[in-house]
Design a protein that fits this description.
By secondary structure, this protein is α+β, with helices and mostly antiparallel strands. Helices cover 22% and strands 27% of the residues. The protein has 7 helices and 19 strands. It has a 7-stranded mixed sheet. Strands 10-11-12-13-18-19 form a 6-stranded mixed sheet. Helix 4 links the parallel strand 7 and strand 8. Helix 6 runs antiparallel to helix 7. It starts with a strand and ends in a 6-residue tail after the last helix. Bound molecules: zinc ion (2 copies). One zinc ion binds next to helix 1.
Amino acid sequence: MPHFICTACGMQYAESAAPPAACLICEEERQYVPPRGQTWTTLAALAQSHSNTFREYDTGIIGIGSTPSFAIGQRALLVRTDAGNILWDCIATLDDATVTMIEGLGGIDAIAISHPHFYTTMVEWAYAFSARIHLHAADKQWVQRPDPAIEFWDGETKQLWDGVTLVRCGGHFEGGTVLHWAGGAGGRGVVCSGDILTVCTDRKWLTFMRSYPNFIPLSARTVEHIGQALKPFAFETIYGHYFDRVIAQDGKTVLAKSVARYAAAVNGTRGYE
Ligand SMILES: [Zn+2]
Ligand SMILES: [Zn+2]
């Protein structure tokens, strides 16, 4: 029986003879059902219409995205550290070329995902590379294809190995997670943020939302908590969730000023209310 994939958000569901009646992710207030209505595909069908594109940003950081764009359109990151490779976030399209190339780069030792919008076909990736998936337990209810490969972690941080830490920020989702790699950016540190910290279109600022498509903001308190969660970590570069959303330098300062700007805007203390 097929594992159907929602074409609007990319979530893959547990096997079923017929497509699910609705996508729980798209029906929820943070996503949306497109005007054309809900439609479904499979990994085999996607392999006929899509392939993956790779971009090496820096030593140890390679972006992987679907061409043409699929569902939300995010790209994942292959983070290649001395102690192992991590797939950060996930995309639906996984084809033979992608498996062959990633195997050639040392495979994937661990998969970690920022939040449920990017769970997509994570179980397929886990099987292709014999990797465990690390998800924050606060978002357990959103997993639509449960599998023994999924491990839930609790609390505020989880070290995958030395110098590689998952940090729970919350915000967009309760378990909203970013990845900190101390050895990235030539040892100055990297944060892979998904859209928990969203790199803005100008690539000079970050923003934070409960829903991006439906424009639901977060409170100042929640956004200030995101800033606090990353206080203990040093980092230079922030990789957002699209190919072009990268803050190359001074990421730590950009986070601090972006939290302050956001809090002032929602508190009405910035002068344009
Ligand atoms: Zn969906
Ligand atoms: Zn999202």
